Amino acid sequence: MYHLNPNVFSGGYLGVPIFFLISGYLITDHFFNTVDYGGSFSLSNFYIRRIKRLYPGMLFVLLASGAYIVLFLKGLLYHLDQIFVTNVLNVYNWWQIFNGQSYFERFANNESPFTHLWTLSIEGQFYIIWPILLILFAKFNVKKSRIFGFSMVVSIISAIWMAILFKPGVDPSRIYYGTDTRLFSILLGCGLALIWPAEKLKSGLKNNDKLKLNLVGLLSFALMLLMIFTIKDSDPFLYRGGMFIFSVTTCIFIAVVAHPDSFWNGILSNRVFHYVGTRSYGLYLYQFPVMIFFESRFKNVADHPILYPVIEVILIVLVTEFSFRFVEQPLAHAKWSDVKNFFKSSSAVSRVLALVIAVICLTGSYGVVKAVSAPKPNVNHSQLANKITKNEKANKAKKQKAIENLKKSKSQKNATGKMTGADYARYKKAAKSHPINTEFEKYGLSQIDLQRLKDVPLTAVGDSVMADGSDNFLKLFDDKKVIIDAAVSRQMGASVDLLQNYKDQGVLAPNVMIGLGTNGPFNMQQVGQIMTLVGPKRHVYWINVHVPTRPWEKTVNGVLDEATKKYKNLTVIDWNAYSQGHTDWFYDDDVHPNPDGSMYYTSFVAKEILKSLDKK
Length: 616
Known about the structure:
Elements: H1 15-35, H2 43-72, H3 80-88, H4 92-98, H5 103-106, H6 118-139, H7 144-165, H8 173-177, H9 179-195, H10 207-230, H11 236-258, H12 263-267, H13 271-297, H14 299-302, H15 307-332, H16 336-345, H17 348-371, H18 383-408, H19 411-414, H20 421-433, H21 447-453, E1 459-462, H22 464-476, E2 483-486, H23 492-505, E3 511-515, H24 524-534, E4 539-543, H25 553-566, E5 570-573, H26 575-578, H27 595-615
Parallel strand pairs: 1-2, 1-3, 3-4, 4-5
Helix pairs in contact: 1-6, 1-9, 1-11, 2-3, 2-13, 2-15, 2-17, 4-6, 6-9, 7-9, 7-11, 9-11, 10-11, 13-15, 18-22, 20-21, 22-27, 23-24
């Protein structure tokens, strides 16, 4: 679910710099348009206008969401008070950095409907500090060229700082939400306003110059689209200069659009774009709450590939329009006299709407107050969490014994698990005389398969989904010879080091099973690291992901499908396709298999490994 998240996928992570650039450009352009023509820039008036423009919508989305939470999703009450206060104070992005949800909270249908509001805090910080700096620059007669230089130097430092802090395979939240690492986009917009002020852009360009201007616009727009549709959110390039390059490209496109003689100016000034522009703030505010609340309430509809996005878009537009007409606009232009005369001059419909909005806000306020004493969700002690903890403890000792056995065993290192005719006769005999793991037979494994699995050498590295099923894997395979190394929150970076360590010890089996991707996306380069490390003589079985609550599901599975075309010794075990439509196999998070689902998961993986061995 949450497929429409514009901050993370389908190029949405590159949508935020566009808003930052426009904000930087407009504020800086407005300031100098005022002072350059002899006017006086009023800081207090600026702040009041910003508050009237931004706070009605922001407060309403917080309170309306709070009202829904207190009535229907009480599990989200925890921290609502802190979320409300930090948004009002414009420090929510830093709160998110230092108050990340626990692993099991993130995968327990406990997604925050306020995650996307981090951008408003960064813009709020900018609105507070940048006008003060501009006033100081003007007071001390600092030339625009020097202000431009200052903006560009700080912008480049910010982009470099993002590149330095980025570590592949590590959660990028710190650099994604940080003011210091996202400042470059805003400052590029500020710099553009200094050298390309809208007020001084006049029509009347020669045809040849118009052609050049529109061509630059076309090229920059094409490059923007190319980057949006080709750069994955997991690509290190995105954080190591890619986002900066995109911001520069967008800056050029904004410059073209701002010129009155530009073809692009005319396109983006039509009624449709004007309407979207006037509602863009609301569309951004309400996207997450609508998606999360809708999908938590109507899960069956929300899983529909065509119906759910249509319904969600309609709901987002309707809620946005309601907020724009009856909350944002009235409060942005309200005066005290309007409040006093409201019940005298307003119609009955207006009074009813005002009452509805008041009830929503009061209920939301009650939710914020109640959140102060709301208990922390007990998801870290859930059945899933307890099972994984138990499995990890039980597996720790078995793993060490297996490593010791494998170091001593020379025959095991050369065995692959491929079955000969003699092996089949032996397994058939054992199946009749000493049947094992009979509980797995109803999940598609024959007794001969179960006997055979005990001779398949395997080294497995995975995340919490594999950790959830590790007890079953250790039943199916020989726990004295097989290594299952799975842990909560594991990502690609740590797994490379683990595999290298097993290889250095000489215990990396001919069959290597990987179960990664639940906790975040990876790219082809990272898959290549694993494949190079494992080497062409070993076979890799990579279990793809069933993680519909996260937008990187398609990215991870797409990368793995692409990788099979490049590496002949890679087999993707399609757990995603096998588990489709079986919500009863999973805990409430729709990611980790429940006890019955774990039997299906481990049995399916084992069957696919045996099937692949028979093809060799």
